[in-house]
Amino acid sequence: DGGITQSPKYLFRKEGQNVTLSCEQNLNHDAMYWYRQDPGQGLRLIYYSQIVNDFQKGDIAEGYSVSREKKESFPLTVTSAQKNPTAFYLCASSITGVEETQYFGPGTRLLVL
Amino acid sequence: AQSVTQLDSQVPVFEEAPVELRCNYSSSVSVYLFWYVQYPNQGLQLLLKYLSGSTLVKGINGFEAEFNKSQTSFHLRKPSVHISDTAEYFCAVSEWGSQGNLIFGKGTKLSVKP
A12 pairs with which residues across the strands? Predict the structure, then answer.
């Protein structure tokens, strides 16, 4: 089945630690996105990538980093510079184009110990 | 800058009653409009989208939405809701000529009671 997988489902971070969230898709989509979801805040864009080896900052990129070395993979690293990382993180992918539907993964919930 | 406003953060309704979830947007250019649904602890799933043509758009699970350009609205409706419709609903827009990024509203939690 085609789709998007995110792992782990739950992730715990200690103070000063970097953690990496995985996102993989087998839909052959060029575009991939990372969103952060906080209660009552909707979804906010962290980073996006329209093509391999290229990515752009979204609205809340500070404290996060990404890479796009393969078409099917778009990992997100939450660095120690992100002082409030507790949130639900969603990865999405789409065919390139403003009218195209974004397909979402099941999400990773990040908690701070 | 574009923005999306979902006027109700929570909407309680009884089973088999009709429901309308409101969405207004602001943009200086033409837009594409989307409604997504999120069930608890899951990702989002597309309900419907408006690209062009007829202003009444039908989606999955019996939902429909109407695009009103003069009022810059894209309200979501269902004539008779079920318990299984309990979820959070997000309105989103993307602008013509942009890189395709979606701007989301803050969501409306629909709670269907028996």
Answer: A111
Residue A103 CA, distance from chain mean position: 12
Distances (CA, A) of B113 to A12, B52, B84: 35, 35, 10
Could you tell me which residues come within 8 angstroms of residue B86 by beta carbon, excluding any fewer than 6 positions away?
Answer: B110, B111, B112
> Best interface-test mutation with A: which of B27, B44, B48, B93 has the largest number of A CBs within 10 A?
B44
> B73-78 and B64-68 as β-strands: parallel, antiparallel, unpaired?
antiparallel
* Tens of pLDDT, residues A83-110: 899 999 999 999 988 788 999 999 999 9
The 10 Å Cβ neighbour count of residue A113 is 7
CA A62 to chain centre: 13
